[in-house]
């Protein structure tokens, strides 16, 4: 690691910490955000039962939107509880729960078919579900892709493309992809942009780094939002990638190395799920960014160091590779 690289890391760390503390103490409110009215609008959220996803869905239901929670089909009990909590707290009757396993492209297809049929117009799609596995073992999904890339990016890529016609008839509409500032530490390259070589049996697990895979999938989120924005420019569908800020002490419970330091740091800069959801709400609802598309945001503003890392050429390469990976599930043939 060069001195320059170390200095850059320290700078990112300090910058993030200061921004997070500022946001925690004085960050945006509904008024600052100049929010669109979402009463009667249809919003799809992948994973409405995680800390951030549930809080976000609660806020949207509370504002009068119809909210569809795409919940992990392996954990529908948790999804059902989240749906009931949201309906109880917001007094909304327009919160729907639909099974979704982003790891399985046929499940994504089934989810999209069902939602698209039931809701011909979709105003906002929020790609929020994720995995961030703290294991050194290489894991692959059913389709054979590296698991972070598959769930965090490819599943969402497929879903967004399948729901695109419904978004296009509901303009102005938005696609928001929850990414992370860890995208700054990714190393995606054009030769293996969806990490196919990673998941190849020839690749040994010792050359696999979990956090790097997560970071790469989060960079893929940003590249995807960027290229989608470019492709849809002028058509009334705008796209955003966004870092929620850190909101989970559990992350540090399993992180190797300087755990005590990390816990102390988290206590100072960590956001509650509700506050992290607020930071995403900017891209979901604010009129201030309605004319922007394809950009990366953090704490309710454009995050330029992140945007500088998003390269148009890489975004195009990722699109082509992702399209090839999920193409079969985009055709009119039955998905299963
Ligand atoms: N938390 C943070 O500090 C932080 C920081 C920066 C960015 N973010 C971003 O914010 C978003 C939300 O984070 P979070 O911490 O609230 O997430 P989380 O608590 O880790 O929850 C992730 C959710 O995704 C679901 N999920 C996992 N695999 C799935 C699959 N195959 N199909 C469908 N759903 C699946 C999980 O369901 P199960 O529980 O049933 O597996 C869980 O409900 C993520 O995109 C994350 O990258 C978070």
UniProtKB/TrEMBL annotation:
Q: Report the leader peptide range.
A: 1-19
Q: Name one GO molecular function term.
A: oxidoreductase activity
| Annotated source species | Folsomia candida (Springtail)
* UniProt entry keywords in alphabetical sequence: Oxidoreductase, Signal
Q: Which named protein is this?
A: Retinol dehydrogenase 12
